[in-house]
Amino acid sequence: MIRHTFSNLVLLWSITHGFYGPGGIHHASKNQSWNNQNLSSVPLDLDVRLRRLDLSDNFITQLHAFALPCLEELDLSGNQMDLISEAAFGNLARLEHLNLSRNRLSVSLGSNSKALRSLGGLRSLDISMNGLSNGAAELLLRNKSSLDQLNMTGNVLIKLSPSLFGESRSIRSLIIEDNLISEIAPQTFEPLSRLESLNLARNNLAFICDFTLHQVKYLNLSRNSVEFFVTPEDAVLYSLEVLDLSHNKLLYFPVLPKMNRLKYLHLQNNLLGALDSEAVMVTEVNSLYQDVVNETTLQKNYFHANWRLMPLVYIDLSFNRFASFPLETLSLLNSLETLNFSHNCLQNINWDVRNYSDPRQVRQIIFHSLKHLDLQGNGLTHLPLLFLKALTQIETLNLQDNSLQPCGMLSGSLPKDRIDFDHFCTAFGQLKTLKHLNLGENNIKILPPNAFQGTSLVSLNLAKNLHMLIHEMALEAVQTTLQSLIISGININSSGLSLPCMPALTEINISNNKLNATPSSLGCSPLKVIDVRNNDFMTINYSLVEVVSTNLTTVYISGNHFNCCDSRWLTVLNDMRIELPDISQAECFTQERNLTMSEYLKSPLFYCSFERDGQGVHFGGMVITLLFVTVFSLVLIFFGRKLCCTPGSSVV
Ligand SMILES: *[C@@H]1O[C@H](CO)[C@@H](O)[C@H](O)[C@H]1NC(C)=O
Ligand SMILES: *[C@@H]1O[C@H](CO)[C@@H](O)[C@H](O)[C@H]1NC(C)=O
Ligand SMILES: *[C@@H]1O[C@H](CO)[C@@H](O)[C@H](O)[C@H]1NC(C)=O
Ligand SMILES: *[C@@H]1O[C@H](CO)[C@@H](O)[C@H](O)[C@H]1NC(C)=O
Ligand SMILES: *[C@@H]1O[C@H](CO)[C@@H](O)[C@H](O)[C@H]1NC(C)=O
Ligand SMILES: *[C@@H]1O[C@H](CO)[C@@H](O)[C@H](O)[C@H]1NC(C)=O
Ligand SMILES: *[C@@H]1O[C@H](CO)[C@@H](O)[C@H](O)[C@H]1NC(C)=O
Ligand SMILES: *[C@@H]1O[C@H](CO)[C@@H](O)[C@H](O)[C@H]1NC(C)=O
Ligand SMILES: *[C@@H]1O[C@H](CO)[C@@H](O)[C@H](O)[C@H]1NC(C)=O
Ligand SMILES: *[C@@H]1O[C@H](CO)[C@@H](O)[C@H](O)[C@H]1NC(C)=O
Ligand SMILES: *[C@@H]1O[C@H](CO)[C@@H](O)[C@H](O)[C@H]1NC(C)=O
Ligand SMILES: *[C@@H]1O[C@H](CO)[C@@H](O)[C@H](O)[C@H]1NC(C)=O
């Protein structure tokens, strides 16, 4: 009776909850995933109400008709499908999203293309990685008037022509990365009036000499072999907002549409600047334009005239060949906020600026909106005053890995050989708006007094200036604004480091030095993060820890030689649940041994409690002695009793 009820319950449960195979999900769900289940064919008896079916990463080679009238999304990517029978999709009337990526659609092309042709309602189609040639792709794209997104990455297309998209004119997003495209016939994309996003990265395009896609907002031509990019002038507003021409062979700046909405321009990893000077470059760009559009009556400086109108906010020119800074060209970009000029070959910034009215007067150029400037990895030895004065809005300046020396008010007491740079130093005090400055790896010899006076620096990175002397007044004037200070890897010892009271400082990194004591002034700061890795610390000032502990969240301590038995600081940090991310790598020593600090923390008393300055008995030793004595007495007592109480014993 009971058993009967039970089996009825089980039956009821399985009816209400449904029970499918390995990929089976809840009965009420309209999704089903059979991803990576070693299937060699589409499972039978699929729920006819399914809306989404994932059969990706299996071993399905052939697809025959199956009926799922509600199915909207089908993922067959990562199979080995070479034959889709002509009628396979006939009963998938509502299918909108089909993923056929990573199959072998080029094999039985006749049948495959007929099958796909019946899917007139598709909105997204992924046929990437299928070995498709131009002709094959064209066949698969028949009857696709609703298609919105198409991915053809990783095929073998060579030439794009209008016939390819003749029956898929509503495409909005088109990805054809990583093919062999070296030619785009005229009028290929023009009929795609809704096209917004076009990705042709990783192909073989050598030039673009007639860019006319007014409708496109995003264009990616990264990693081709593009040598130049030219837009013939017209009076139409282009929608272009993002243009990626990185990793190409550009010798010249691109000639962009006269009227555009371009905000992000990626030109990194090209050959820009390889020509001598800015003036030469501008002339060359203009004559190139003239050649390409076969224009004889050209206005004087077409390139600059257009450049001036661009609403660009971001330009990446890193990893190019600039030996001189294109001051005028870049200053024409009135909205430019971020300029990445890292990893070029600048050694100087010469003020080669054309003098307009009065040829005897130096013209001050201004970068009106520039907030973030990255000049790392150039060979700069000096930034001239005119350049600093041009940066009226600058907030972030990255000068890592150059050879700049900051100016300051040097006092006569400094050693003579350290003042020889006096005339070649950089006057950072000019940058009134500057907040974040990276001067790491500049081989700075000395940080002179008041080096940053005039700025309101929030963060300062001075890392890896091996052998830098820091004058005790160096941070004067920014001591109240500094929140983050990095003085890592400058080989400084504690007698060489004296810092002012910095009441805003929340992060300090003094790692990789020879310090054995923290600067006493740190007690002034509401520190949250302290990094003292790889120094000569034996202990950390307990009273400092106590003072700053209210705000402290994280301390990095590994790579020091701490005394386990002088580690009240550690107990406090540990008790306050301050994060010590590298404690398992941190070591400390006792008289007997070295151990990791996490090991020590497990039983501090065991290692240290009786050790007082090397005198007295070691606690561990004492425990062992005590144990030994106890066990010995117990054994004695036991045997004693045995001897006394054994019946018949007469020996006493
Ligand atoms: C089915 O999948 C779609 C898209 O992946 C998701 O938005 C939806 O929440 C899923 N439904 C259920 C019931 O899991
Ligand atoms: C698929 O086959 C492989 C190799 O035979 C096996 O290791 C794996 O467990 C199988 N996966 C499933 C879900 O059956
Ligand atoms: C198709 O599936 C692949 C994984 O196999 C995935 O990378 C790709 O994004 C999918 N395509 C679409 C349009 O979702
Ligand atoms: C094109 O797709 C529609 C469904 O949207 C279908 O009715 C029609 O038969 C298809 N045309 C061809 C030639 O297969
Ligand atoms: C396009 O196809 C490639 C290769 O299969 C894939 O990695 C990428 O995620 C796809 N892109 C989209 C947007 O689905
Ligand atoms: C352009 O495509 C490349 C290659 O896929 C990619 O790395 C890059 O992020 C894309 N650029 C933009 C701006 O999206
Ligand atoms: C360039 O224009 C001139 C006349 O303006 C014409 O004679 C010549 O054929 C054109 N060249 C090309 C390549 O179109
Ligand atoms: C500039 O480019 C370099 C190299 O790609 C990169 O590391 C750095 O983060 C970029 N700087 C900015 C401000 O984007
Ligand atoms: C502009 O005038 C200054 C001052 O006379 C001069 O040093 C500089 O060489 C001139 N620049 C050019 C490009 O003529
Ligand atoms: C600290 O460094 C300075 C400068 O390198 C050196 O003169 C001094 O002897 C060092 N002090 C100690 C205690 O090592
Ligand atoms: C430091 O902690 C104190 C007390 O909790 C708090 O008032 C102060 O705002 C904190 N300072 C910072 C910079 O977070
Ligand atoms: C502890 O480590 C230090 C430095 O690594 C080493 O000089 C010392 O000999 C070690 N002491 C013991 C007892 O292993």
Automatic annotation (TrEMBL):
Family matches, as Gene3D superfamilies: Ribonuclease Inhibitor
Transmembrane segment boundaries: 617-639
UniProt cross-references to PROSITE patterns, sorted A to Z: LRR
SUPFAM superfamilies named in the record: L domain-like
A Pfam family annotated for this UniProt entry: LRR_8
Key words, A-Z: Leucine-rich repeat, Membrane, Repeat, Signal, Transmembrane, Transmembrane helix
Signal peptide as annotated in the record: 1-18
SMART domains, per database record: LRR_TYP
Record's GO cellular component terms: cytoplasm
Listed name of the protein: LRRCT domain-containing protein
